[in-house]
């Protein structure tokens, strides 16, 4: 509403930013030239991270038998954060023995009601130490504090709270059957949601009366060891929860330990297959939560602005390190240009950087190895002839950071469309008919999660029935809740975690 | 009156709603308990397994999208047809040396078992589906959904009853299957294919192969288009082979060895659930 | 704009309410600290349509209002003045006089504000009167009853006619979103207003609850963005009613920044319709400058 148009201000608004109506501006929105957010770092001075961490076995922190340690790196600075024990077969054996003893002498003797009370206690203690855990999760793993504070940690507490209540109600969970616990559970979790995956694993195992030997990922062990402190502070009987740290070899010792009754694994499909093969011919039960290449299908009658937000949540949540990420966007041809335009605008407002800054949307890629893997896929995509677009944001000089990226002009046969990248990289394909969308969606060995965006209810149900995946997010994406079962079809895994269905893998009849 | 020369039956396989011979054209001798020859059965090869899996995959979409009510009716129809032909099956079992009384009991239990599972088709989602009270403004529900193509390795014991006890829970939920029949007495399973053919079961939903397990089980359990395996062979080596093969494509494996197929225990919905996926759907709630 | 370019308003643009609320909630998590906070507080102050719209308004009150508008806080004379005062038509000349020699605009509500329940010619006269009295800006209300009946062409034509009656004055179109209820209606009314010639679209009269909300504002900002991409024309946005705290004002600015970008972050394209917000912004600005938490007793109540 400037009344006076002088030569100087004709192309600028009164705050000095370029005026978008000027003929040269190509109607491009500008999100950066005026009013930048000052740094808003989460204060972390009250958080204690030790120089060295040991295993947590039989209720105490013990040094590894072989005395070997590994290093955890802060991916945002590439600096060493701490050392942690490198678990060997001796350590795993100690932990399994402790878990077996605790199972036989203590945990299986407790009533469900008492078991439940311990788990409730743990839930509360997670809530009490929420901010500390969130900060550590961000430092150790690189995820933005906004997510660790608002998603990972509160959800972790919620899973314990939910399963605590099941402990004395299991006889209502399986019609016609009385469930029994299995014994000792070996659990191996990934680096993308360290504490949350721990909660997904430990909460149902304890509720159903099992004891646990858990191995966190080697790039993100710290919150699991903080959780060990919580178990100790909660007075949980010794040996009910044991945390053994280490890398793949340690995990393999757990998988192959003869006195373990059940294996729960979350991680890549490749490792999942190796574990499934290792377990061949044994009587161990197992659940696998593996990879995905989630199709996110957008029909032309979708609520577009909310869809854009859903796409952002689907692929840029947690740097795209999400097994159920909506990494394949399938958009109906008629709205593709508009949608991509909107998505590009939205990407310009994503802030990449310091995980501890409260305004950061995309933090650090979890590790150097993962960073290189993603860079490699970016090259592959370009070499395959895809058109790459990245947001123009600033990224820090040190640390492993990746700009949010989309690939257009891709085909189903491209590796970037077929393979799980596990980073902030989205491929965009178009379709003309619902059948074509469903066919493309299902044309993958994976089947973990998918999204559908349309204003038409009947279309949601039809697409939901036709796309073979364990989770169908309609007009939303990447939502999690302890009451809601999660898990894959096909090569995305076996079994469900969460909800009533999440009890099933931890019991026998 | 001179004895009439009986017309012997040629036993073939049942694949894709048709009755082909083994692609390999090989057969093997099926004998009774006294080693007396009673028939030749197809000695299926890996290519027969391939064809059967292909047929099962083609049938899966249509069968799994039938209404649960309709699948229940089809299963009931199988029972009806079996009831009508039960004397044939009793004779076939007797031919292999089963006593008449036991044969009759096996056929009767088989019919009743079909009816048991026929009744589950439209109840499984109600009993095992959930509406999940999530903390956000979303409606969230989970329901069981068929997993796909299931490979079934049938035992030798009670060849009709065991086959039906395995097929019925698998197809009740909408799966299609490939069954490797009893080696010792594959004849009731093959004849059961004729019953299926006559009772509105779409071709390819159930496929029945005969032959030696060491020529079929490996191929079936490693086939990447098979989603799950239901195995009744207790032998450790076989189990291990199946488990290892399953890991190639993350198959669901259920080992289900049983001594006595007459037990009521075999009638339970948890066997159906073993071959179902839980699908969870989220949707916002708002105006 | 040719008739062909005007969309068919009978068509509804789907909007998912939960998705909008989630987006707002995420934007609310932006942490505005230090320099960016002070900058934003001053910016928000400069965007205020300092408002009094009461039956008991007097010339004296309007004069006080205007003096606050031109110099919000005497101890800090370098602070920006507010964008405009907003009054009833019969107070326009008083306000105009009181603001002489300043850049503070005079906005007047018109068209039988707040209900709009009057004959068309009366609304036109109301508008012309306010313009004649010197109003720089006219805040009109749409006929919600006709809108809810589905009589969209009536709404379009009425806005277009008032726009013409405004002459040089800028037109803000009040949708009264609290009566439209659904976000789809908000979107539709926004589109109608913009295509009919609105310079600004505005949420509320302040007389109906709920008044301005962030989900409604976000939907309107997104409508402005789409309109801009379609036509190349910028339209301004004014949430009004119920915005009392500086913190909320900053949240609104975040909505604008991340939806429309920097260009809209000026009083030319974004306004707050508010009265008590001014003092809360001032308190926060003084707190930022001095480090001492403030009391309302030290800020004039005009």
Provide structural commentary.
The complex is a heterotrimer of chains A (509), B (287) and C (302). With 509 residues, chain A is an alpha/beta fold. Chain A folds into two domains: 52-290 and 492-508, Aldehyde Dehydrogenase, Chain A, domain 1 (3-Layer(aba) Sandwich); 295-482, Aldehyde Dehydrogenase, Chain A, domain 2 (3-Layer(aba) Sandwich), CATH 3.40.309.10. Chain A is built from 14 helices and 20 strands. In chain A, helix 3 (130-141) crosses helix 4 (145-164) and helix 4 runs parallel beside helix 5. Chain A is globular and about 75 Å long. Chain B is an alpha/beta fold and 287 residues long. Chain B has one domain: Aldehyde Dehydrogenase, Chain A, domain 1 (3-Layer(aba) Sandwich), CATH 3.40.605.10. In chain B, the strands form three sheets. In chain B, strands 7-6-5-8-9 form a five-stranded parallel beta sheet, with helices on both faces. In chain B, strands 3-4-10 form a three-stranded antiparallel beta sheet. A two-stranded antiparallel sheet of chain B has the order 1-2. The mean pLDDT of chain B is 96. With 302 residues, chain C is α/β, with parallel strands linked by helices. Chain C is built from twelve helices and eight strands. In chain C, helix 1 packs across helix 10 (214-231) and helix 2 (34-46) packs across helix 11. Chain C is globular, with a radius of gyration of 19 Å. Chain C starts with 16 loop residues before the first helix and ends in a 12-residue tail after the last helix. In chain C, 57% of the residues are buried. The mean pLDDT of chain C is 96. Chains B and C meet through loops of B and helix 1 of C.
